[in-house]
Specification:
The chain is of the alpha/beta class. 30% of the residues lie in helices and 24% in strands. The strands form five sheets. It has a nine-stranded mixed β-sheet, sandwiched between helices. Strands 6-5-3-4-7-8 form a six-stranded mixed β-sheet, sandwiched between helices. The structure holds 5'-O-[(S)-[(2-aminobenzoyl)oxy](hydroxy)phosphoryl]adenosine (3UK).
Length: 543
């Protein structure tokens, strides 16, 4: 075991016991990491050292553009501020708080350089949630966008551990930029161990106490050499764009780590609802997109009329979908609109990024894909034994990354016998494709039949009237549960009993009739998390 660089050993002291950790696999040659590794050296400084410093790294609306050398200058200055002015010692946790923008990336790299542990927070979080995160991670430092000051100040009043806070982007004379201006010159990165924690990623889970997953410098680099080169295959001239917040590891990877690993550039949007994402894709000539299935669905029509893809004279050539199951209907819609076959991938905060996926040539509607090189995946029966192909069971994975909850008994739920159990029900086909069914706790049992919500949702979405929908099991005296659908209609259609019957008949004609929604309720919108995930549980509870 290499010596840690951490002086504050908080994270190391709270790792799960060795027997509770997943088994880690490092079978690929590119996963042979040295004992000492700092991901900022690898992802940022390496490019400048290799003479690529003037390449464009970050772009944002309003003409902001930073080269790799400029990002290094900013990150080095902030690292000096953290160490000299804010008293950071390696291993301290640093809360980061901003919408996706270049300064947030500079702060993230500064924390890596200084040997700190970055704690990203979604911009919409409230003081109560921030205070929980600060308490759980014993966070002592924060770098925060001035625009998000109010909620952090409220959290700070309840958080004695948080003693060092600096704001950027504001007018105050004591802001982060004023401190940065007093420092110049390179920052000598802390010589971190490959297995020093550098990231506390809180799960986007929607209920109960937040869980903090711990990731090492080595894990960050592992995420860059599995899915990206083996499945996505972007190149240095690609321009990345997308919607997930950098506090969500889907966004951190897709919009910072992966482009920077290959010396490409990335467009950072503070808000990226579908219309803005399309507009910015055209403005910046973006070529690689990361967003969620609902966003692709909402953009399809605009993508067609505005000709954003290469096939139509635009620039977009690769699109990654994750965060939720990709309905086959959405895959087809996007392909018809753009000529682009989506790269679906399942990832998880616990696993850092995507571990099952398929490239454009190997995509199969209704399947997420196969295990990404570096990972192994299987479907387990209720006894934790590998289930035969064609059987529905619990998805289990292992690879170079895996679940380490910070001081949390729920570690024993996610990791069993060395496998990471993601909480998803899957079926593996005879040729190794993994077909998503539902979250294990989302399976509907109606009159003895198992019915997976996403399958019914996919069938409904093929109807022209349906903009969005969500399917749940609703308690029923006779059948235990019945299938109930919540439907958001397209503007051109109106709710009513006739449409209910039409949708029911439509589903019966599309999939096995017993799966049809016996109840349908029309809604203006559906409850979603900030990461775009449908909150089915909020539809289940009354009110
Ligand atoms: C679900 C999917 C079917 C699945 C994530 C890419 O979503 C991410 O992380 P979270 O911790 O949630 C994990 C859970 O989300 N899921 C994600 N992608 C898919 N289900 N098909 C998919 N393609 O239930 C999983 O267990 O929020 C995604 C990269 C990094 C991430 N953190």
């Amino acid at each position: 075991m290499p010596a840690t660089s951490h002086i504050d050993t908080f994270a190391r002291d709270r790792l799960p016991a060795p027997e509770q950790q997943p088994e880690f696999l490092f079978e690929l040659p590119e996963l042979q990491f040295p004992e000492r590794l700092n991901c900022a050296t690898e992802l940022l400084d390496r490019h400048i050292d290799a003479g690529r410093g003037e390449r464009v790294c970050l772009r944002a609306p309003g003409g902001l553009q930073w080269s790799y050398a400029e990002l290094q200058r900013q990150a080095d200055r902030i690292a000096h501020v953290l160490t000299t002015d804010m008293g950071l010692v390696p291993g301290n946790r640093v809360l980061l708080r901003a919408a996706n923008k270049p300064m947030l990336v500079a702060c993230w790299f500064a924390v890596m350089k200084a040997g700190g542990i970055a704690v990203g927070t979604m911009p919409l979080l409230r003081a109560k949630e921030l205070a929980q995160i600060i308490a759980k991670g014993e966070v002592s430092h924060a770098l925060c966008d001035d625009a998000l000051r109010a909620e952090l100040e409220l959290a700070r009043a309840q958080s004695p551990a948080l003693t060092q806070v600096r704001y950027f982007g504001g007018a105050a004379a004591d802001g982060l930029e004023a401190l940065m201006a007093r420092h110049s010159g390179r920052y000598a990165n802390v010589d971190t161990a490959a297995d020093d924690t550098c990231l506390l990623a809180f799960t986007s889970g929607t209920t109960g106490q937040p869980k903090a997953t711990m990731h090492f410098h080595r894990d960050v680099m592992a995420s860059c050499v599995c899915f990206p080169p083996h499945v996505m295959r972007a190149v240095a001239d690609d321009v990345f764009i997308g919607s997930p917040p950098l506090a969500f590891t889907f966004g951190l990877g897709g919009l910072t780590l992966f482009p920077m690993h290959i010396g490409a550039s990335t467009v950072l949007l503070e808000k990226a609802p579908p219309a803005e994402l399309l507009r910015a894709t055209r403005e910046f000539g973006a070529t690689v997109m990361f967003t969620a299935p609902t966003s692709y669905r909402a953009m399809a029509e605009g993508a067609r009329t505005q000709a954003v893809s290469v096939a139509h004279g635009g620039t977009l050539r690769k699109c990654v979908s994750a965060g939720e199951a990709l309905p086959a209907a959405t895959r087809a819609l996007w392909r018809e609109a753009t000529g682009i076959e989506l790269i679906d991938g399942i990832g998880a905060t616990e696993m850092l990024h995507i571990f099952i996926s398929a490239d454009e040539a190997h995509a199969r509607p209704g399947a997420t894909g196969v295990a990404v090189p570096g990972y192994r995946a299987c479907v387990m029966d209720e006894h934790g034994r590998e289930a035969p192909a064609g059987t529905i069971g619990r998805l289990a994975v292992k690879g170079p990354t895996g679940c380490r909850y910070l001081d949390d008994p729920r570690q024993a739920d996610y990791v069993q016998d060395g496998w990471n159990y993601t909480g998803d029900a899957y079926r593996m086909s005879a040729d190794g494709y993994f077909e998503y069914q539902s979250r294990t706790d989302d399976m509907i049992v109606s009159a003895g039949y198992n019915i997976a919500s996403p399958e019914v949702e996919d069938a409904l979405m093929r109807h022209a009237a349906v903009a969005e929908c969500a399917v749940i099991g609703s308690a029923d005296a006779e059948r235990g549960q019945i299938v109930k659908a919540f439907v958001v209609l397209r503007a051109s259609h109106s709710a009513g009993d006739a449409l209910v019957r039409e949708l029911q008949d439509f589903v019966k004609a599309t999939i096995a009739p017993y799966k049809y929604p016996r109840a349908i309720e029309f809604r203006e919108s559906l409850p979603r998390t900030e990461t775009g995930k449908l909150q089915r549980f909020r539809l289940r509870s009354p009110g």
